[in-house]
Amino acid sequence: PKGNMAFSGKYEFEGDENYDEFVKKIGLPSDKIELGRNCKIVTEVVQNGNDFTWTQHFPGGRTTTNTFTVGKEADMETMGGKKFKSTVKIEDGKLVAEFPNYRHTAEISGGKLVEISTSSGVVYKRTSKKIA
Question: Which residue numbers delimit the Cytosolic fatty-acid binding proteins domain (predicted)?
């Protein structure tokens, strides 16, 4: 992996773009849409070489954890709770996960965690600042 692949840390939600359009596109129910809006999600990443544990802590105590190794198929869960299999790749220092009608990238840019999800042509961007 490249030198800019240092993902380990804790990141707190700072801002997003296109949230409503995106979550409607992926079919989140409206109660979940309200819960998720400007939600102070804390993302915790533990990276050991190509092995990752990616945990999202939601206010109220709910967590979602995805564990994967770059280049190997893994069982994953989306922010909407859907389960799927994906092989995470590295492209230009970004982690990329793809499955039908959905692409997710994550990168560290300017000390922030920047995640971009694309589904059916709608692009959702979430930025989180490093807190630990």
Answer: 9-26
Q: Of 20-34, 84-98, 115-129, which gets the smallest average pLDDT?
A: 20-34
- Which segments within the chain are labelled E, that is strand? 9-17, 42-48, 51-57, 63-69, 73-77, 83-87, 89-91, 94-99, 102-109, 112-119, 122-130
DSSP SS3 for 22 = helix
Q: 102 forms bridges with which residues in the sheet?
A: 99
The domain that holds 111 is classified in CATH as 2.40.128.20
Identify which of 49, 24, 53, 51 has the alpha carbon closest to the alpha carbon of residue 37: 24
Write out pLDDT tens, residues 112-128.
999 999 999 999 999 99
Question: Containing domain of residue 47, as a range?
Answer: 9-130
Positive or negative, the CA dihedral 2, 70, 108, 53 is: negative
The torsion angles phi and psi of 98, rounded to 5 degrees, stand at: -130, 140
